[in-house]
Design brief:
about 15% strand; phospholipase activity; signal; globular; eight-stranded mixed β-sheet; alpha/beta; hydrolase
Amino acid sequence: MRVWVALVIATALVLAVWRRSSPPSSHVPRVRTVVRPVRRLQDVRGYLARRATVPVARVAEMTRWETWEDVAQTWPDVSDRHTLRMLARFACWAYYETVPTHLPDAPGWAWSTKFGWKEGGLRGQVFATAHNETVVVALKGTSASFLPGGTTGQRDKDNDNLLFSCCCARVDSSWKPTCDCYHDPQTCDSRCMGRTLIERSLYYPAATDLYNNISYLYPNSQVWVTGHSLGGVLASFLGATFGVPAVAFESPGDRVAATRLHLPIPPPTTPDEDAYALVPVTHVYHTADALATGQCVGRTSICSRTGFAMETRCHVGQSIVYDTVRYLGWSVGVLPHRITVLISDLLAHDWEPRIRAAGSARAVHGWLPRPVPSLPGRAVPAPQRETLCQGT
C-alpha cells in the first residue's frame, strides 16, 4: 500500500514539474481570422477550360460574360503580426522536403502532406488545423542548386524570366530571348506574350491542378495559399483565380504576369476602381528588398549577372510594406530578400515601437531623425492597395 501511495505522489510531482516547465498554451499566440466578402467566378474550372480553347485576342473579353458571385470567406487577419509570422514560417518550410509534424509555435495547426518532391517542378507543403477547418498550401519559391529544394533551380529560373521580365527576358543584345515576342527595343508583341505565358508558364497550370486536388481532398475546408518569392506569386495567382485568401511574402511584381495570363479579375464596381486591387491577395515585403521593389534591374545588377530578368515591380491586391530603408536605414540589396529576414527580424517585433525606438537611437547619436508616422499601436504597417502602380 505504501509503495502505491509513493508512486502516486511521485507521479503527481513529475506532472506538476512538467506543467510548470511547459509554457501554457495561452501564452502562444493563436492565428487570428476575419470574415470578409470575396467576389469570384461561379465556375472557375469551366473558365479555365474555355480559356484554353479561345484565341488569345478574345481571352480578355471572356470575364465580361462570366457569372460572378459574392461569398463570405474566413481570411487570415493580416493586421496581426503573429498570424503573419506563422504564415511566413509555412512559406519557409515549403523549401524543405521534411518539416516538423508538430508545430509548437502554431497551436492548433499541424503538418498535413507534401507535394511535388518526386518531380522536378512545383513543390511545397500543406498544413491544416486539427479538424481540417482551415488548410494552408505553402508553395516553394526559387531555389539555387546548393540550397534546400535546389533541384528545381533551372525550372524556377525559367518561370522567373517568363513571369517577371518585360519582354522575353531580353535585357540587352547579349541575352537570348526566352520567346519570340521581342521585335526591337521599343516593340514587344503583347498578344504573343499572353499566348506564351498561357502555353509555357510551367508552374501556373501545375498550381491550378494542385488547387483542384486540394479542394477535392478537403471539400469542406477553408483554403489559404502562401509562399515566398516565386512561390508567393503563384499563391497570388491562385488567390486571384479561385477567389481564396492568399498571402505572398517578398514576391516580385506580379501584376504584369496576371494581366498577360488573363486571370479572372473581378469587375470593378465603379469606373474609377482598380480591378486588380480587388483580388483577395496580400503582399508582405520591405523596401530594402531589391526583388520585391523592382530595383534589381539593368545589365549591371546582380540579377542580370546571374541570368535573371527581374524587371517588374507592381503587385495585385493589397500590400503591407515595411519601409526599412526610410525608418531603419537598411540598404537595398538581394540578401534582404531572404524569408528569414522577415521571420527573425521584422515579424519578430511590433513595427510601430520598433521604428520609434530606432528614431530615438538616431537622435541620441546625433543623426538627423527621420519623421516617424502616426501609427497608433500598429504591430504591422497598414495594408494599402497599389492603386497608383499601373505600369510594370
